[in-house]
User: What shape does this take?
Amino acid sequence: MVINYAGNKAAALECQELCEKASEGKRRIETVQGDISVGEDRERMVDFVSREFGRLDLLVNNAGVAPNVRADLLEAGEESFDRLMNINLKGPYFLTQKAAKLIAESAPLEGAARAVVNVTSISAFTVSTNRGDYCVAKAGLAMMTKLYAVRLAEYGIGVFEIQPGVIATDMTEGVKEKYDRLFAGGLAPINRWGAPSDIGKAVVAVASGLFPYSTGQVFNVDGGFHIHRI
Assistant: This one.
């Protein structure tokens, strides 16, 4: 297992420690630094996996950033747009391109999936006019899931989208008060903040190979937010 990080090494090492504890020391786990928006870094990341492990079974595209500044759709600038699209969409798009070739070359393992998981957001279909770039990137990632699902099916590689709702992370810490109010007003049927572990469990289900006859599937991990209600 390889954990990628761009700049927060401490968080990556913490994740590594937690994974080692969960596997009871039975799995080799490494961290590798790389900015997913940079082509050379993407190449180096996949080359590291190939060299150190000799194979790849599962890619989880979880890299994502919020806009530096939330700006109205009529005022937002190109610099923020380019930064966000490069990290949230272009990076996963081309990382998947390279990683999928390594997965295709790797002999299948019993009890493990050959899969790509894209972590998107309810922002793929929910409008926020003060962060249009984020919404567009997530919608693009949702379409990317369908594209790669069709292209990689011949290799037995499933491609899945996990669509989180409001998850308690560093990214949402700054808007906690806003979402607390929304939950108080009944934002979702399962009316609580989501936890990172809710996303992790969905990834584990895919990684375990439990969906051999599915691809392009969207897993809503949003407390039922996506359900239209009247």
Q: What stands out?
A: The beta strands are 2-5, 30-33, 58-61, 115-119, 158-164, 218-221. The radius of gyration is 18 Å. The longest helix spans residues 78-105.
